[in-house]
Write a structure and sequence with these properties.
11 helices; single chain; alpha+beta
Length: 332
């Protein structure tokens, strides 16, 4: 069952962290052999952001986290736990979470990272929601933060034009009237396809060496065609079953916050769901694929600009390296 039982879980605050450097498709034309028309046609992306030299994954995460606390009227010392979903940590050891805990001055909080591909933000929501529902924690900050720009092969136009840096954050707490409520959540993985998106070199499987450097094994590798097939085959029936388990149909969902990977993927999924794509919250054109941050950034923007109103049903759904995927139902 997808339902969250126990103490009701609410989204008390939302936040966003945007890097300093914006790169348009015209900028990308100067970096790699591509054109604006090629990028827009294949992805729907017009611009994306990248961190400056003095910015980091942790600094983006802190910016988004503090924004979420301000939105909620909360303080860092109110936090019990900080979870950072990321695939591009500043260092593998230590993780980003403990750095963020220190930099925010959250003296009573734990800190940890979640590595679940682009589904990392959703995995964090599930873990936080479970902890609040079972009364382990009262206030959990879930952050998705990425600096994928530093892990891209800037000679590979099939990947480097797609990704952007950014962070999104949610403060989850016991639900009270006026909050968005997290009612249902489900997580899955299909490790048979774990090699579709990877960074093969640099760690225990392939320790750094002259060979891994020469073969550019330390950068993101993605089989875009097979990812497209996986998502369009797997995700529509999964979402139909998820909606059924929640007691609703896809047509009853007011807003869909889908992982911002590629506009062609979104079009294919919504066509198979028989749901108009106008119900999707999309910021892909401005931010590109921000990996674990994407759905959290979308939620913040949609609530800030008034698209999300009281009494609506929102489904957040994501997929990513692993291959991981999942969905959550929110009632506003």
């Amino acid at each position: 069952m997808a339902a969250i039982n126990g103490r009701p879980v609410g989204i008390r605050g939302v936040g966003i962290g945007i890097p300093s450097v914006m790169r348009t498709n015209a900028d990308m034309e100067k970096i790699v052999d591509t054109t604006n028309e090629w990028i827009v046609e294949r992805s729907g992306i017009c611009s994306r952001y990248a961190v400056a030299d003095d910015e980091s994954n942790a600094s983006l995460a802190v910016a988004a986290g503090l924004h979420a606390l301000r939105d909620a009227g909360a303080e860092p010392d109110d936090l019990d736990m900080i979870m950072v979903g990321t695939n591009s940590p500043d260092t593998v050891v230590p993780g980003v979470g403990p750095r963020v805990q220190y930099l925010m001055g959250a003296s009573k909080a734990g800190g940890m990272d979640i590595q679940a591909g682009c589904t990392g933000g959703l995995y964090g929501m599930a873990m936080a929601g479970g902890g609040i529902a079972s009364e382990i924690w009262n206030n959990v900050l879930v952050i998705g933060s990425e600096v994928v720009s530093r892990l891209l092969d800037w000679k590979d136009r099939s990947t480097c034009v797609l990704f952007g840096d950014g962070a999104g954050a949610l403060l989850l707490s016991p639900w009270q009237p006026g909050m968005m409520r997290l009612t249902d959540i489900d997580l899955r993985a299909d490790g048979e396809f774990c090699d579709l998106i990877s960074i093969p070199g640099g760690l225990a499987a392939e320790p750094a060496s002259e060979l891994t450097l020469r073969d550019r094994r330390h950068f993101v590798k993605m089989n875009g065609r097979e990812v497209f097939k996986f998502v369009n085959r797997k995700i529509p029936p999964y979402l139909e079953n998820f909606c059924s388990s929640c007691g609703i149909t896809g047509q009853e969902v007011d807003w869909w916050i889908f992982h911002q990977a590629n506009i062609r993927i979104l079009e294919g999924v919504f066509r198979r769901l028989n749901v108009p794509i106008e119900r999707a919250i999309i910021n892909l054109d401005r931010f590109g694929n921000t990996s674990a941050a994407s759905i959290l950034m979308c939620l913040q923007e949609a609530r800030a600009d008034g698209r999300i109103k009281s009494g609506q049903k929102i489904i957040m759904t994501s997929f990513g390296a692993g291959m991981t995927y999942g969905a959550a139902l929110i009632e506003s």
